[in-house]
Amino acid sequence: MLFGYPKEAAEETWFHDCVVVILQTIHESIKNGQEPPAWPAIIPLEHRSDLRRKIGLRDRLKKYQDTIAQLTVDEAAMVLKTLVEQNDIEHLLSGECECNAIDELPEIICEPIQSLFEYGFNLLGALGIRDRQYEIVFAATPFHVCPFCGVEYFDDPAAPREPLDHYLPRSRYPFAAINPRNLIPMGGKCNSKYKLAKDILFADDGARRKVANPYNWKNINLSLLDSVPFEGTREIFPLPLWQVEFEPDTDELLTWDSVFDIKLRYQRDVLDADFMSMLREFSIYCRDHKIKVKSSKDIIDALEKFSDYWKESGMKDKAFIKAEVFSMLSHHCRQGNDRLIELISGIVIGGMSLNA
Q1: Where are the beta strands (DSSP E) in 140-283?
Q2: Please, what's the b/e burial string for 216-232 (b: 16 or more CB within 10 A of its CB; e: otherwise)?
């Protein structure tokens, strides 16, 4: 991902923590041959008033409790261990630990777990936790764009919420379904067309992989310098053959690209689709700034100024991609690509049709 979310957005964990404490209390009581405390006494005192009237939560916890009582000691211990491990999100994403998925637990407990945490996820809205998380993310997100693609805009918190993705899919890791560290606001296309319910911990071939942690991630840089002018699609206009790279190049970024098809989307939906309009913008920029070109140095200077212009715009309107396009063009002009210099010169002086 292009940048990380503020850690503060994942810090309202009280509901998740309460449910975990309740489940741990159920396991400990049954293990010791005791009856777990009744509702609402089983709720941690500091949040008892917040949850005591959530009868649906009470009923699902009771079903979970009754099912755990039917398991062997070892089976119950495995379920409790999975509860803890599925919520060790930082180390799961870094590849430093593993956990069972829901289908590796005793079949009898799977439905009670899924029902409990599906209901708990819906409660996040009623408790205001989802809204408060999104407000923090929106306020801190540069230019209010999705960090997974940098292209989709987030709507204001007053509008209908953006999708709240379960980074570790709740279909496989339901114990993490109400953990804010696993809840990621995401652009609609990134969520519904690309991420879907993919298990980000594993590649299609089953290989374990490292994943960028949205709440502990530094900004990365895009580079198009290795793209080759005139070697791409030629049906309408001689486009470059795009080479999209990210720096630093890490295993986490390979996973990000694989899950969200970032390079393909940039090439297909931005670079190929918008290259001609970018050149028109450059032509207008040169006209408005009365830029004259009498040498290849003049052309290079104009391209670099236009690249800097977009860099100053940050991530607004795909500016970070446009900046790299013109940085790439200036690089190849500097390398003595005469055909490219002639094209850019024609654009600046208006002697070449961009519909050619």
Answers
A1: 164-166, 183-185, 221-223, 245-247
A2: ebeebebebeebebeeb
Question: Where do the domains of the chain lie?
Answer: 7-195, 221-349
Residue pair 143/150 in contact (Cβ under 8 Å)? The answer is no
Peptide bond between residue 248 and the one before it cis (omega within 30 degrees of 0): yes
For the chain (356 residues), the mean pLDDT of every run of 10, in chain order, is 94 98 98 97 97 97 98 98 98 97 97 98 96 94 92 92 90 98 95 94 96 92 96 80 94 95 96 93 91 89 96 93 97 95 85 47
Give the max Cα distance, the chain.
90
Sequence-ordered alpha helix ranges (H) in the chain: 14-31, 48-51, 55-68, 73-86, 89-94, 107-126, 129-140, 188-189, 251-260, 262-265, 272-288, 296-311, 319-334, 338-349
Tokens 């003049």 label which residue?
Answer: 298
pLDDT, one tens digit per residue, over 150-160 is 999 999 999 98
Q: Sign of the C-alpha dihedral, residues 8, 127, 47, 76?
A: negative
pTM of the entire predicted model: 0.90
Euclidean distance between CA atoms 49 and 318, whole angstroms: 47
Q: What is the pLDDT of residue 4?
A: 94
Q: Which two tokens stand for residue 21?
A: 């404490």
Q: Are 68 and 77 in contact (CB under 8 A)?
A: no
